[in-house]
């Protein structure tokens, strides 16, 4: 992974010093609330319901065992001994003290971490395919580009006070695991017929109050122009994004009010001046950054089939291991290797929550089995990127002992869930208790496996931190005269065929949701054809049968003439 | 006389007077949505009748773009003598300025930050310097907060004017002292268009 040089370190250290001074001035009354707000937000610090929340950047989801231990340490010393992985691959501390935050950031800077631009109206910490660099279906490793973009966007003077937040996601695979089309800018790297790296630039996606999928602004941007083109997009957005209404300030509103063609023309007009400018990437710079992401020293596997045969024996002996292999182990570019998800979706635990002890345990597992590197995923799990086939059984036993081997990746209980009304100052409703109730109701592993792949996303408010618009089943907490109600949508999907969910009907109280999901799943299991996932069945039969089952059929009124 | 911060860190007094709009011209919240209290780019900064009522004092003066457009003939001689600067609000485009004034002759352009969260003037500044080759003095006015001084200088401003009374002399000196905190920014900007990798040889440190 990327290693800081003296320049990176000096910048992060300077940011700590700057924030220490800003915090001091705020606490001394020299900075007003209004003045401090954007400064603290651009350093990841929210003031919310019970306490501040600090969002620490994990750029494009990559971290080392050493960094995870540093996170465990700050959570233990400065918080309540746990953290929460968010859908943007970052880690949130829910109970730090404002005055301690500079100290926390100083601790993190020692291992090359920071909280720069994890919030605020700026270019946010960049997310990526969690299988970047190892996915079997990958054409271009997007990680060097993500790092180049991280550096370009960090403390960018011109784009430090945009109309609203601005989120980048990158991917270089055929499957889209980064949900590119719901980001302000989604960058899909690929190789053209001549083997040249090109970028498909998607602009204007976003969820929240007005969910929209991105439009394609450029089909085949040469990679050397990446920063110039992004600069052109950001400049057009900074100048023309709406600033009179925060609900209409994202670039998606600009993209959809102007239309893709007009926005493209405006960006092109700007780009005409920036193309081939000083920010044009060079082979040398790409090579320098790419060197950090060269493959680890993989062992050569003489014969993968022999290893697989041994695994089959173990699977027969250990059904739990077999279930874990099916759900939590993913294909890899390198023969003899697999990627493994450490599930943070455990019964009775808030999705994405992880204790300091578990962070230490995961760090140790990464050291033992995966070159000391981990990834955080947008589905709020941890992932070991490079595990040998031969080591899977030992890893499973060790992870199981730590409670990190729940075999539910992609299943109904792998709920994506925001902190919700228990902690978040924005939420209208709690999301975690609902997630737990659903996990409890659908705990039976055989039933879960039978239901197959279902993305369940629960957001506590319209800000959509849990991406409920792209969940197969998306649940949104709403406030109805001071009490918590929930609205359910079906048919959202992430991936290359992304879609936004359709609302099934009126909102219901929390207690009704597990039963409602039971009904929805009954419609699915009744109607499904062999091999059909929930989303496939939904797309085939539409929302009407689900609606009818949940809300009761309004029987066609017999007209008595 | 206002106290300003220069790009070289000097704190000086200037004798330019700014013709501002009265408080009644502040943007009002719209009926719906979550008000951002700002005019969108392309909206008029002030109504014509308000512009017509503004008085222009004698001596070096910085006038609103719309006032310049309305009274250009009356101000031209003073402009030629180097005594008229023009300021743009965040909703006004530099293209309009370039069409309305001879930027080679202009002694001073000021860009208003109506509030700290409104970053449009950064792009306007960069465009003036890079696209329109403006070489005169470029002021940041309005909500000019010390935590953004370095960004402003990077985008091509050479003079920063915080609101009167916002900072004590000691606080300004402290702010100036911290200007060099980020000695090697990653990206290019107006002050140095080269990104870090074109400025220095970068070699990784080996960590264990």
Would you mind describing this structure in some detail?
The complex is a heterodimer of chains A (561) and B (208). Chain A is an alpha+beta fold. Chain A is built from 18 helices and 21 strands. In chain A, the strands form four sheets. In chain A, strands 16, 17, 18, 19, 20 and 21 form a six-stranded mixed sheet that branches. Chain A has a five-stranded antiparallel sheet with strand order 1-2-5-4-13. Chain A has a five-stranded antiparallel sheet with strand order 3-14-15-12-11. Chain A is globular, with a radius of gyration of 23 Å. The mean pLDDT of chain A is 95. Chain B is an alpha/beta fold and 208 residues long. Chain B has one domain: TIM Barrel. Chain B is built from eight helices and eight strands. Chain B has an eight-stranded mixed sheet with strand order 2-1-8-7-6-5-4-3. The termini of chain B are far apart.
Q: What descriptors fit this protein?
A:
heterodimer, A: 561 residues, alpha+beta, Sulfite Reductase Hemoprotein, domain 1, Sulfite Reductase Hemoprotein, domain 2, 4 domains, six-stranded mixed beta sheet, five-stranded antiparallel beta sheet, 18 helices, 17% strand, globular, B: 208 residues, alpha/beta, TIM Barrel, eight-stranded mixed beta sheet, 8 helices, 8 strands, 28% helix, 15% strand
